[in-house]
């Protein structure tokens, strides 16, 4: 189970409940969150956004995942890099220590997405890694055994990039299966291309079988397994960019999915440029809700199309001069020059790469501009003029001309909307209603990762949305939507210390110091990671980790319901998921904020195999609980 032992407080049949007190809360005075740069806590990797990779999707940043990979009780992190991945061990909540930085067989690979998931069901988290044009991999038990690390390829049928991945045990054999959300060249190809078709991978103890997934081959940014109709089977959501409708599927008892069409009247509307999908229960009615992050610019999409206008140039200049970025003033201005020199939407032909005043950057800029010229002029012969060492750019250029565009029918697709994010509220009949405007969450700029979590332990799940993109000089703060008792949300990023103008695309919620409140570790698109330490001293909480010997060990697809208050009239629900968001994965642990309530009367666990355990006990708050189901009834 884990290397550390916590006392057993309840033994019910083949289910045991362990409990451990949380660490004391921070005694910080000031705003709820304090921001620090990753290197201050030992997270040394920095996204290096150079002209060579100023290309869609390489300039969207790299992924991050959290999970306890060495089973010492402290949640660790893994990050995708331009050289494979790096693994950081949590050192008793004080800092992180890099323990793996590059593996020989992954050296030089542009890794984009990373997840911590136990694919061989041995009780240890593995690393699932996707790369640009070099396939997907699983790194088994990343802590090396006698210096050896076992790496296996995971099929994606030669897709250029699996940008999004999600995991669930679809056939209930104990081994999490995989959905590949594939991506091609984004803004360069736009319309559906055959090479972006999604797949799912049946996992029979690392014997992988690739299967096609019905639906329009969109540019997929987010995929998520979540049981949205409460039938015990993992349903699937696929979020697409570039005006291709998101696709929803009902799971089944077998090995397959049923596509939900508009005429089913389950999902009323979706977003046109979906970056992130998450499910949560924002109003605590025990019915899952859906949040979709889109390009929701408060000043309209003109800020994208008019990047060369004086308004946008002045916005970029003001940002660089403001002192509100981790970049130096000179570096910041240089990045803004890249925005106009290498913008895939259109380039400022009056500017030249020589303005960058950096010999290497000038060379890389000219190579990337060659791709832009080749694609705009439809001149494949220009790709051959891109010579070593710029092999990645040469491949990118050739891939543009290899795109197989497909004709599609949109007759049965779910309608899309532009410019706004969506909150779809789940109903008792398992349909959804759009409450975006009523709940005040519709605008969050160029959104990326967005997930539910109770960040102030007041019983209600909030939403944190990071934003920013290199192809516009628009710099807007990330958004923290504070849940107002399940009725609406209030923008509160400034009050909570979560306002940040630097571009960011991915983050993970993580209780670094095990004090019962969630911290945040986020990437930046052009520099180091940032750590937002939660200083909240109000509100009780519990965390619940599930260990299952009958199904998949980390209980992906399991649901936890807690009941508390007078006669157990208050309740909350969490689902254990590894998927959704944008290039981001949280540890498989359920976090519940409880406000001033001091006990929980009942916990209900619905296991991924369909059974339910009802645990009645006076559960104290401010505890870490581990609920462990053994394989055999009464097995001690």
Kindly describe this structure.
The structure is a single chain. By secondary structure, this protein is mainly β. 11% of the residues lie in helices and 38% in strands. The chain is built from seven helices and 41 strands. A five-stranded mixed β-sheet has the order 1-2-41-34-38, with no helix packed on it. A hairpin with an 8-residue loop joins strand 31 (507-510) and strand 32 (519-524). Helix 2 (310-322) runs antiparallel to helix 3 (329-341). The longest helix is centred in the middle third of the chain and has 19 residues, at 359-377. It is globular. The relative contact order is 0.17. The mean pLDDT is 93.
Key features?
single chain; 636 residues; mainly beta; five-stranded mixed β-sheet; 7 helices; 11% helix; globular
């Amino acid at each position: 189970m884990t290397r550390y032992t916590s006392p057993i407080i309840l033994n019910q049949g083949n289910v045991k409940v362990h409990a451990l007190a949380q660490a004391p809360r921070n005694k910080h005075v000031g705003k709820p969150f304090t921001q620090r740069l990753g290197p201050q806590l030992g997270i040394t990797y920095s996204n290096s956004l150079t002209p060579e990779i100023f290309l869609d999707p390489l300039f969207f940043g790299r992924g991050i995942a959290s999970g306890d990979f060495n089973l010492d009780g402290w949640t660790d992190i893994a990050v995708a890099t331009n050289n494979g991945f790096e693994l950081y061990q949590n050192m008793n909540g004080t800092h992180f220590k890099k323990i793996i930085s590059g593996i020989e067989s992954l050296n030089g690979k542009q890794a984009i997405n990373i997840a911590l998931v136990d694919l061989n069901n041995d009780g240890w988290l593995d690393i699932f890694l996707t790369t640009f044009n070099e396939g997907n991999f699983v790194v088994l038990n990343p802590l090396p055994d006698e210096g050896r690390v076992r790496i296996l390829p995971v099929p994606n049928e030669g897709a250029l990039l699996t940008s999004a991945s999600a995991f669930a045990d679809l056939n209930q054999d104990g081994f999490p299966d995989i959905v590949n959300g594939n991506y091609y060249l984004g803004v360069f190809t736009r319309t559906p291309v055959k090479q972006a078709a999604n797949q799912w991978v049946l996992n029979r103890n690392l014997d992988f079988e690739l299967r096609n997934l019905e639906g329009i081959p969109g540019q997929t940014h987010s995929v998520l397994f979540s049981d949205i109709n409460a039938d015990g089977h993992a349903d699937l959501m696929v979020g697409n960019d570039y005006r291709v409708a998101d696709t929803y599927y009902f799971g089944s008892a077998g090995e397959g999915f049923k596509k939900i069409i508009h005429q089913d009247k389950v999902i009323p509307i979706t977003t046109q440029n979906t970056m992130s999908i998450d499910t949560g229960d924002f109003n605590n009615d025990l019915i899952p809700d859906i949040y979709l992050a889109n390009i929701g610019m408060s000043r309209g999409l003109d800020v994208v199309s008019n990047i060369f206008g004086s308004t946008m140039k002045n916005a970029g200049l003001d940002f660089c001069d403001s002192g509100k970025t981790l970049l130096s003033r000179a570096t910041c201005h240089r990045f803004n020059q890249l925005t106009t020199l290498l913008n895939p939407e259109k380039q400022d032909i009056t500017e030249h790469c020589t303005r960058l005043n950096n010999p290497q950057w000038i060379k890389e800029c000219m190579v990337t501009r060659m791709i832009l010229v080749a694609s705009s002029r439809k001149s494949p012969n220009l790709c051959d003029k891109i010579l070593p060492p710029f092999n990645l750019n040469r491949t990118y250029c050739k891939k543009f001309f290899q795109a197989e565009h497909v004709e599609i029918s949109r007759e049965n697709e779910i309608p899309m909307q532009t410019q706004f994010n969506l909150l779809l509220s789940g109903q008792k009949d398992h349909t959804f209603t759009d409450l975006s405007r009523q709940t005040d969450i519709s605008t969050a700029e160029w959104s990326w990762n967005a997930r539910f979590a109770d960040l102030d332990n007041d019983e209600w799940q909030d939403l944190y949305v990071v934003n920013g993109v290199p192809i516009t000089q628009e710099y807007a703060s990330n958004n923290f939507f504070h849940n107002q008792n399940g009725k609406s949300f209030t923008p509160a990023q400034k009050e909570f210390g979560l306002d940040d103008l630097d571009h960011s695309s991915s983050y993970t919620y993580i209780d670094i110091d095990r004090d019962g409140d969630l911290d945040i570790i986020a990437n930046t698109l052009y520099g180091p990671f940032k750590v937002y330490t939660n200083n909240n001293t109000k509100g009780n909480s519990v965390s619940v980790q599930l260990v299952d010997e009958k199904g998949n060990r980390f209980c992906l697809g399991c649901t936890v319901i807690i009941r508390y208050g007078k006669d157990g009239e208050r309740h909350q629900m969490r689902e254990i998921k590894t998927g959704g968001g944008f290039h981001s994965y949280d540890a498989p642990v359920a976090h519940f904020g409880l406000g001033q309530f001091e006990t929980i009367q009942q916990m209900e666990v619905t296991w991924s195999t369909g059974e339910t355990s009802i645990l009645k006990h006076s559960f104290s708050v401010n505890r870490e609980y581990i609920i462990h189901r053994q394989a055999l009834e009464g097995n001690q």
